[in-house]
Amino acid sequence: MPIAIDRRGFLKQAAAAAALWTFARPLRADAAFRVALFSDTHIAFNSRDTYRGFFPSENLRKAVLDAGSGHFDMLVINGDLARLEGKHEDYQAFNSLIEPLVVKMPLVATLGNHDDRKNARAALTQRKGDIAPVEQKFVSTIEAGEFRFILLDSLLATNVVPGQLGKSQRTWLAEYLAGPSSKPTIVFVHHDPDPDKDSALVDAAPLLELLRSRSSVKALIFGHTHVYSLEKTNGMHLINLPAVAYNFAGDKKCSGVRIVLGAVAPTPVRARNAEALLEGQVLSEELAGKVGDEAMRESKPISDVRSSADYRRAMVGVMTKRALLNAAVGPAKSWVDRRDRRY
């Protein structure tokens, strides 16, 4: 989504595209600093690796082609470069895929929960920017055009979902923002800054408090959730980048849904007819009910001393509907949220 940015308005316009943004220089109306923004690429060494029906390597290859056909000044990849555990060979595959862009523009990056700090440092030799003096963290800054970019490190531990900046990184950030520069500043961090989510940035509250206190900070850009969102709070934009690895549909249409039924047939079975009802459709409670009914018809339970086949078949319909509606809403933020859901 290309977005024009200037000192006063920050966000001036938006158009439909995928992770391609424009930062307008204020001194010339026709000049722009263009940034290609990627997040959550999730690349594995095996290029045929799939997840939930998606093909991360192929998606990144297509995104690189799209960005390569434009005129961009910088590439930002906002964490979770690797698939699960940030293995050395994963980064080799990642480097190979982004090479067509790196030869054209500087690369800067953050780390996410599926990255490995040591392996990432060794692999990302082409990374640009000034390395910040934060011990055991992957933090950098870069000034480009009329803007200043800060790339934070929220990796707590590899393959551990929540993220954390830590006191030393937050202290450095406060000192850096207190410096003499008044350039519009854009901050990147992989984890979403939601203080109420167990899977998000655990020290989100002090980070947001710090950033909101600095008028030069115009935006905090993050990934991790695999969805796109844009909001503005206290004069600062919060921008959640969608994942490159997993297809993003702005209209929320279902794609690649898989339904597997266990304990209602001799072996686990795919409810393929139920899956077909979802493809390309916007999920609603009515549709989820129809899918549940179809899954019920595809199940083949037996009766025994624990329950009847009819009861088990009925429960397939109920639980399939509940699973779909819960997946659409997203993970519960707390046990209270889970308790209060009506499905």
Overall pLDDT score: 86
Q: Which percent range describes the beta-strand content?
A: 15-25%
Structural class call reads alpha/beta
The named CATH superfamily of the largest domain? Metallo-dependent phosphatases
Number of domains: 2
CATH architecture of the largest domain: 4-Layer Sandwich
Distance between the termini: 35 Å
Structure description:
It is a single chain. Helix 1 (56-68) packs parallel to helix 2 (88-102), helix 6 (272-278) packs antiparallel against helix 7 (285-298) and helix 7 (285-298) runs antiparallel to helix 8. By secondary structure, the chain is α/β, with parallel strands linked by helices. It has two domains: 3-240, 4-Layer Sandwich (Purple Acid Phosphatase, chain A, domain 2); 260-340, Enolase-like, domain 1 (2-Layer Sandwich), CATH 3.30.390. The chain contains nine helices and 15 strands. The protein has a seven-stranded mixed sheet, with no helix packed on it. The protein starts with a strand and ends with a helix. 30% of the residues lie in helices and 18% in strands. The longest helix is centred in the last third of the chain and has 21 residues, at 309-329.
